[in-house]
Specification:
single chain; Aspartate Aminotransferase, domain 1; 2 domains; seven-stranded mixed beta sheet; binds 4'-deoxy-4'-aminopyridoxal-5'-phosphate
Length: 420
Amino acid sequence: LLDTFTASNPASRECFDTHARFLPGANSRSVLFYAPFPLTMARGEGAVLWDVDGHRYDDFIAEYTAGVYGHSAPEIRQAVMEAMEGGINLTGHNLREGRLAQLICERFPQVERVRFTNSGTEANLMAITAALRFTGRKRIVVFSGGYHGGVLGFGAQPSPTTVPFDFLVLPYNDAQSLGAAFAREGSEIAAVLVEPMLGASGCIPALPGFLQALRTETEKAGALLIVDEVMTSRLAPHGLAALHGIRPDLTTLGKYIGGGMPFGAFGGRQDIMALFDPRSGPLAHSGTFNNNVVTMAAGHAGLTRLFTPEAAGALAARGTALRERLNARCAQAGVALQFTGVGSVMNAHFADGEILRPEDLEAVDARLRRLFFFHLLARGIYASPRGFIVLSLPLDDEAIARMEDAVEDFLAVHARLLPP
Ligand code: PMP
């Protein structure tokens, strides 16, 4: 497979070698790298990508969930063009930011006030900052395997967590450890920052009781609950916390909500967000591009015209159905391959048994993951090297059928390599 890959992608290889002279790793996003060299994409349309060697791929990564609209939605393009015609970089309050903020507050009821950033990373940094100031405490509880941005990663391959916060890292989905930590030092904890489904660590959903325990413990201790919905807000009409019946104090958002443009947001309780009100609050929050008209316009068009709450529910249902069919097929084949996730976002794992936290995946053979990735690529399916699979609005039933055929084919061709 690797020989075929190398032989059939000379232009991607050339791009990689050339760009590596200027960018360490030839790119600015570590997640996009895989050996021997990653594909360079030339163009996209709908849910289809073409690489620089001219191969066509069904896009099952969808910009790591930000690409819910696909590559060419006319509604998004039109909104962006209109915004540009009105002038770029207006250096002032503008009409579009208020409209998008209103939409977000109406869509996610726990968000009473919201502020925009350029990335999910920044949104989480600001939410943490707010929690520290609001509570006057120092410690932030996070979870092993959690990913909250480039400087806020707690997985096996930690990102440089150089930001000077006092983190306490606990095991995910473990209400007991949580209870013990709060019993021990609850009065020092400013906030808990949690993904309602671990995304980067393999689409591991939170147990309902776990999120409930987080809500109860934080409330009891006077700490804030920050739910990172950067990836998960798309998984249910009003976000994943709402689906669990949980009302966080602060929520962070990102990805598709900016219509595919650079975006992040943090928001929540009015009394906490008032920290950032320049008329009365102590905290400044600036950012040259925070209210840029292009993102504001694209985000508004996407949420009103394409990814309505009904559309979010429907896409989640399609994803759930696909995941269930894939799991049924693997069970039938009697192999240790399963797909975890929620709604339109899932991850393939070569493991049997229940997966509750990333530690349950430590024994998984990374070579199988790699084999699966190159197998899918060879069949024109662009899923992520870690087995991450994402649906987008323009991805049609034929593409989903091609994905299922490719998995079927994998089970047939590599059956003898798979653990029972
Ligand atoms: N939080 C979560 C849960 C994420 O999945 C990501 C991005 N994958 C981020 C935060 C960071 O967002 P960004 O890449 O926009 O900085």
